[in-house]
């Protein structure tokens, strides 16, 4: 149900705009209060009057209309809502959103809002499949925008069929409920995440490291922040951007990571997604080691601290939920089960990173969630989707085990 939630519905210009009117009703049936913005193109298909009649208040159309700016204004429209829904989200609106354009009321409000945004794309199947639209979609998803549909079927144009039909109003309303359930589910909690590789110096120009892009750990930190947690992300050197709304501590080595993790505690949950180097060079050289003809350099290695095991084994101040990853190339589940016990953590997310899976550095991940009570295999999904699924599970587990 959407009881006492406020929804801002942005109606884009497509033939599916008429279904947006039905969507207003569906959202109201679930208890939501709906406000509408119509783009200029939307007004070619439906009128502001129709939307206003259904909403029970005026529909907003113009960024430069003195009356509506003095009345509510685009910043209040962006803030006085719990969720923004864009339906239909046209190819053009998606491109503008991706680029951060703000030259009309709809796009200015989307740029100004800090509330979740759910889009229901609708367009001709060729426009949907176009590289540009798919690029825009991928970026919007990476920016945290949620998507429902499009479905496949007949288009409004005669003889056109394929993927591009807007999701049905009932499906969009259900997706809105799901987004709002996740949002705020971690408010009041502290979550610690490690991400990326560590670099262990050999000398000032050389280091030992693991292959890790940081994509999964950063996505988890972003999803936890989106769910309302106060998040500290301790990250090794990565090329991915800092997630929005997260406090990021940048480190190089495993020892620095352990210190930063200890400083970031206490936390309700800790997720260790970093690929920490197992060893470091015992005596890193202060100067660049010179190549000596015909004689290879010998390096004396010592073991790094196991950050996950250290925190999981704490007597005092152990986070209520300690979660590790196991990147395996064979016997994935058996190794993960053994790791759960050895490290003393609560959950292990195991993934098969053998080279044929393309998981290392890629955007998708296939996860097995290993806990004391069993194994659950998730269907292959994007690292962002894995992050959201994990955060959903984590919120449910923390709610059950309230201190
Ligand atoms: O032992 P292994 O490296 O396979 O364990 C992987 C898990 O342990 C990951 O969650 C990783 O972040 C964590 N880890 C750690 N400190 C280490 C090694 C691994 O926190 N030194």
Written overview of the protein:
With 403 residues, the protein is of the alpha/beta class. It folds into 2 domains: 6-182, Flavin prenyltransferase-like (Rossmann fold); 190-400, Rossmann fold, CATH 3.40.50.10300. The protein has 14 helices and 21 strands. The chain has an 8-stranded mixed sheet, with helices on both faces. Strands 2-1-3-4-5 form a 5-stranded parallel sheet, with helices on both faces. Strands 6-7 form a two-stranded antiparallel ribbon. The protein is elongated, with a radius of gyration of 25 Å. The mean pLDDT is 92.
Structure summarized in a few sentences:
This protein is α/β, with parallel strands linked by helices and 403 residues long. The protein has helices at residues 17-29, 48-55, 66-71, 73-79, 91-99, 105-112, 125-129, 131-142, 169-182, 215-226, 254-264, 307-312, 332-343, 383-400, and strands spanning 6-11, 33-38, 83-89, 117-121, 146-147, 151-154, 161-165, 190-195, 200-203, 206-208, 230-235, 247-250, 269-272, 279-281, 301-303, 321-328, 347-352, 364-365, 367-371, 374-377, 381-382.
